[in-house]
Design a protein that fits this description.
The protein is α/β, with parallel strands linked by helices and 304 residues long. It is built from 10 helices and 9 strands.
Length: 304
């Protein structure tokens, strides 16, 4: 550690927290410069902690994309919110993202009340500034800074990358001196099987987000490296009812074919190998109350 510090290297964890759809996943992807976390219009798309790894000068940033923080109603909701707050305990910097276009609502109010309990330096990030008038941004900045002790405020558009470079530089300057945790060319610590499942879940939501209920999940069952350098991947999409299975399949299998084609293309790009993707759809009633499913997602199972 001392030797690395002499060389000027820095490394640390940055937790990105905020209400659902604040743009955390889009910001993570912009900071890393590659697609690490899935993005859809459906709220609470991110279920588990996704870590993206970015380099800025001599600093390595481990950026933690968290589930949106909101008032939980179901068991899965509670697990996700608990995971998001848990990420702040070991973070070196905590960044609160606020959708500047929507403004601060009940979810943000609840988050602001708990921020005082977090010891790490806190940064306010107003996202989606390309959709907001400047005078409204300034008013929102003043209001939020009056309610919490932020070390700095940044105005960004994660979608266009406006302001992202300045935010990244701030993070790099405020993580501790020390050796890097990961190889220089690694951009995520997510296992490939998990990354592939997340990509398919994204395509599922993008195709059916108005029709498909929140309770659906994707698991990578088979990952087989073939002699020709390609990969055979078998995944199962689990839903809770037969009516949902029919929605995912679509008329004459059209929906599942489109989801598979889109997922296969993105997975192949992510792993830089040809992919043979096979999707299956099964009903798993009450999976949201099954402790094993939570363990597979990396979430702690709430007892109540």
């Amino acid at each position: 550690m001392a030797e690395a510090a002499k060389e000027g290297t820095r490394c640390g964890f940055v937790a990105l927290i905020g209400a659902p759809n604040a743009g955390k996943s889009t910001l993570l992807n912009a900071l890393v410069g590659a697609k690490i976390s899935i993005v859809t219009p459906k709220v609470q798309t991110t279920r588990v902690l996704i870590r993206g790894i970015a380099i800025e000068g001599a600093a390595q940033l481990v950026l933690v994309d968290t589930p949106g923080i909101f008032a939980p109603r179901r068991r899965l909701d509670r697990a996700m919110v608990g995971s998001a707050w848990g990420s702040t305990q070991d973070a070196d910097v905590v960044a609160l993202l606020v959708d500047a276009h929507k403004g601060a609502g009940e979810d943000e109010d609840a988050i602001l009340r708990k921020l005082a309990d977090i010891r790490a330096p806190k940064v306010l990030v107003l996202n989606k500034i390309d959709l907001v008038e400047k005078r409204k941004l300034l008013a929102l900045t003043q209001t939020l800074n009056e309610r919490a002790a932020f070390a700095a405020t940044f105005m960004v558009s994660a979608r266009t990358s406006e302001g992202v470079a300045d935010l990244k530089s701030f993070f790099a300057a405020h993580v501790p001196a020390g050796p890097w945790f990961y190889p220089e060319d690694q951009i995520s610590d997510a296992p490939l099987r998990q990354l592939a499942a997340e990509i398919t879940r994204e395509k599922l939501y993008l195709r059916l987000h108005q029709e498909l209920p929140y309770q659906s999940t994707v698991e990578t069952e088979v990952w087989k490296e073939l002699k020709d350098g390609s990969v055979r991947i078998e995944q199962t999409i689990y839903v809770e009812r037969e009516s949902q299975r029919k929605i995912v399949l679509g008329k004459a299998g059209q929906a599942i074919k489109a989801i598979g084609a889109a997922a296969r293309s993105d997975i192949a790009a992510a792993i830089e190998q040809p992919v043979h993707l096979f999707l299956f759809v099964k009903v798993r009633q009450g999976w949201g109350d099954d402790p094993e499913r939570y363990r597979e997602m990396g979430l702690e199972f709430p007892k109540e």
